[in-house]
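sorry for the late reply, my laptop died twice this morning and i had to redo everyting from scratch. anyway the thing you sent over, i finally got around to it. pasting the sequence first so we're on the same page, its 115 residues, then the predicted structure underneath. double check i copied it right bc i was rushing
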Amino acid sequence: MGETNLQSFAYFDPGPSSIIPTFYITNGGRISDPKVDMKDAGELRRFTPDNDAMSYRHRRKDLRKWGVLESGTIEYLVLSNVDETFWWTSDLMKGRESAAIHFPHPGSVEVRGGG
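ok and here's the structure:
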């Protein structure tokens, strides 16, 4: 996956319902991956735990709860100028390309209305 410069972290956890929490991580750029032309592109990642990881969610001991981060899906934010929409993709290169155009060097994540 090349080098990363992970800078910030945020999460959305709707509580002990059936909804799965999501975690957001910014990569601040300065990527030295030879496959990437945009050396300063830094993507926004979304991690969604899978069912195996979610089995740790209701563990009694706090240290075991971190197992929720052990397996799942990583997706990357893509923004569209054409119709002012966004979507998540599993394609890292599309995420980096979008970041290079729309939000190079993301340094932080702002959370609003957290519940």
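The chain has three helices and five strands.
thats about all i looked at so far, will dig more tmrw
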